[in-house]
Amino acid sequence: RSSGPKSAKGHAHVVPLPGIPRRSLVRAGEPSIEELSKLNPTTAQTTPEGVVERALSQENAMQLSDSKAIVTGGASGMGRAFTLALLAAGADVVACDLSAAGLASLSEAADGLSGKLTTTEVDVTNEEQVAQLIVFADAAMGGLNVLINNAGIFLDGKLISVDRDTGKVRKTMTLSQWNKVIDVDLTGPFLCTREFAANHINN
């Protein structure tokens, strides 16, 4: 059961997010936090917007002016929410993603927030690009002390698909599909964390 504050009608109380327009956190076509609250207060509190609003509520506001963060996969979803929340709390952020359009949209949403945002296109599965990201971010922000390994993918597919009529195997997950998920979701965080840690120790 949710322990968060409730409105008179029993819906989850929505705390305005300091410095971040509500439209910045909700993509086109997605339900608003108010709509989700009416359907399911618990679900509403676990959306990107709900998580950020609770984290930056007036009674629990974060102050991160000394933080210099990298957020991978920062152009959309949770990565976008993390980036905007950090910026609103005063942190400087380098957000990376493969989507140039998503990064441009993120920059627009971050306009006016107290932290400094720098964006760059990076493939977290590419060892050379990750190494360059760490050097670039360090130089852009004058140091590094936060890493959020957010980038990830999910390919909706079954290991084996069986034909309902024949009962025989119709399709199997390909090795390339498997490797793509492993590369982004496991190798990516490994590379980023290794390079971030090495930079932190050396500097």
Q: What's the Cα radius of gyration?
A: 20 Å
Describe the main β-sheet briefly: 4 strands, parallel
The average pLDDT value, as a whole number, equals 80
User: What is the distance, rounded to the nearest whole angstrom, between the alpha carbons of the first and last residues?
Assistant: 45 Å
Outline: elongated
Low-confidence stretches: 1-27
- As a percent range, the share of strand residues is 5-15%
The portion of residues assigned to helices is 40-55%
Walk me through this protein's architecture.
By secondary structure, the chain is α/β, with parallel strands linked by helices. It is built from seven helices and six strands. It has a four-stranded parallel beta sheet, sandwiched between helices. It has a two-stranded antiparallel sheet with strand order 5-6. The chain is elongated. The N terminus is likely disordered.
Layout: helices, strands, pairs:
Layout: H1 33-39, H2 41-45, H3 48-55, E1 68-72, H4 77-88, E2 92-97, H5 100-110, E3 117-121, H6 127-141, E4 146-148, E5 160-162, E6 169-172, H7 175-202
Parallel strand pairs: 1-2, 1-4, 2-3
Antiparallel strand pairs: 5-6
Helix pairs in contact: 3-4, 6-7
Could you give a quick summary of the protein structure above?
The chain has 203 residues and is an alpha/beta fold.
List the defining traits of the structure above.
203 residues; alpha/beta; four-stranded parallel beta sheet; two-stranded antiparallel ribbon; 6 strands; 42% helix; elongated
